[in-house]
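Weekly structure sync, notes
Attendees: PL, DS, HV (note-taker this week)

Item 1: DUF2480 family protein
DS walked through the input record. Source organism listed as Cyclonatronum proteinivorum. Sequence as pasted into the shared doc:
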Amino acid sequence: MIENKVAKSGLITLDLEMFRGKTPVHAFDLKDYLYMELILREKDFREALQNLDWEPYSDSVIAVYCSADAIIAHWAYMLVCSHAQAVGAKVLYGTPEQVKLIIMLQNVRAHDWSQYDGRKVLLKGCSHEELDPSVYATATQLLLPYADRLMYGEACSFVPVYRKPKEKKVRQDAQPAG
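Item 1 (cont.): predicted structure, written out as tokens:
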């Protein structure tokens, strides 16, 4: 009979991929609204936003950024937010890749890590897409107060990261000094 030692070990494997946001992220590059790719004209920008079909952005996340080397006034981002709100979109500043990372880190921070109290936890090392190291660092910081042991990799081949120090047992028959 084949014995599954991993199943018997009580090891909990966490795939941090589960923290990727499921809401679509749409790119909103302000470069497309610049005059000569240098300056954002308020009147033209307001008109363009007014005439834009916002429905495709409905109930999504908009990554607003500027890929051109231009100075963008803060009010430009505020105007995008005001239009996006009408269709239930959330606006975050950054490229789509940066925004996806922001969302993932928000999801990691919102997770209830106390459920791993006193447990052996393995943060899965292989994923479909490479995860940013900050995701592993954030999950580790949030797990350390709870996990008995923390590892990285796969159940068959892992790197030990942390082991909670054993508490020293005080003998019951010891006499206090005095």
